């Protein structure tokens, strides 16, 4: 009954916001700057419609000349490059994926996560959350998806965990991600055991400028081979 009430409330909110936006529609975003400003207007509301954000991000057609300054690649890992902080409501980030690079299996800190492919193709593998009643069990795959240029996808923690990969060994990929609310800690999971570890994620660059490499210091680092993540720079692929 409680789940049904939540679903009904969510549907009512979606309908209310759709009616409001139908009466005062946002112009279609012709540029990346238009997209950023439109998203700021959408996120002024205390409640947001996932469908509306998906649709609005879909309307922007990728133009490399507009996002090129944020697209900073690294030979060793995929990179997270901050584009805008969304007046504190969201982070908009360009992720750059070299050939064969991918994330570890991770959650999203109770945030909304929208992804739009700007260039190339990305593959998503979704997993069920590990059982609290078992010490060790391999994570169970639930779905797989492939996204090409201008495709938009969405996930939150109620939908499960996922891993995103550029499986091409000849082409790079670039994607635009919106996280609301913003976060800097996530949980990463070992596919073989279901063990989890909290890690910190940071930015490779901010607003087009490379950030100083964080001081790792003497703090303990996670076992990347087991968790699939690194606590300093970004989420790393698992070593299978």
Automatic annotation (TrEMBL):
<dbReference type="GO" id="GO:0008198">
    <property type="term" value="F:ferrous iron binding"/>
</dbReference>
<dbReference type="InterPro" id="IPR011051">
    <property type="entry name" value="RmlC_Cupin_sf"/>
</dbReference>
<feature type="region of interest" description="Disordered">
    <location>
        <begin position="1"/>
        <end position="28"/>
    </location>
</feature>
<dbReference type="GO" id="GO:0019448">
    <property type="term" value="P:L-cysteine catabolic process"/>
</dbReference>
<keyword id="KW-0560">Oxidoreductase</keyword>
<feature type="cross-link" description="3'-(S-cysteinyl)-tyrosine (Cys-Tyr)">
    <location>
        <begin position="113"/>
        <end position="179"/>
    </location>
</feature>
<feature type="binding site">
    <location>
        <position position="162"/>
    </location>
    <ligand>
        <name>Fe cation</name>
    </ligand>
</feature>
<feature type="binding site">
    <location>
        <position position="108"/>
    </location>
    <ligand>
        <name>Fe cation</name>
    </ligand>
</feature>
<keyword id="KW-0883">Thioether bond</keyword>
<dbReference type="GO" id="GO:0042412">
    <property type="term" value="P:taurine biosynthetic process"/>
</dbReference>
<dbReference type="GO" id="GO:0017172">
    <property type="term" value="F:cysteine dioxygenase activity"/>
</dbReference>
<comment type="similarity">
    <text>Belongs to the cysteine dioxygenase family.</text>
</comment>
<keyword id="KW-0479">Metal-binding</keyword>
<dbReference type="InterPro" id="IPR010300">
    <property type="entry name" value="CDO_1"/>
</dbReference>
<keyword id="KW-0408">Iron</keyword>
<feature type="region of interest" description="Disordered">
    <location>
        <begin position="210"/>
        <end position="240"/>
    </location>
</feature>
<dbReference type="Pfam" id="PF05995">
    <property type="entry name" value="CDO_I"/>
</dbReference>
<feature type="compositionally biased region" description="Basic and acidic residues">
    <location>
        <begin position="1"/>
        <end position="17"/>
    </location>
</feature>
<protein>
    <recommendedName>
        <fullName>Cysteine dioxygenase</fullName>
        <ecNumber>1.13.11.20</ecNumber>
    </recommendedName>
</protein>
<dbReference type="InterPro" id="IPR014710">
    <property type="entry name" value="RmlC-like_jellyroll"/>
</dbReference>
<feature type="binding site">
    <location>
        <position position="106"/>
    </location>
    <ligand>
        <name>Fe cation</name>
    </ligand>
</feature>
<keyword id="KW-0223">Dioxygenase</keyword>
<comment type="pathway">
    <text>Organosulfur biosynthesis; taurine biosynthesis; hypotaurine from L-cysteine: step 1/2.</text>
</comment>
<comment type="function">
    <text>Catalyzes the oxidation of cysteine to cysteine sulfinic acid with addition of molecular dioxygen.</text>
</comment>
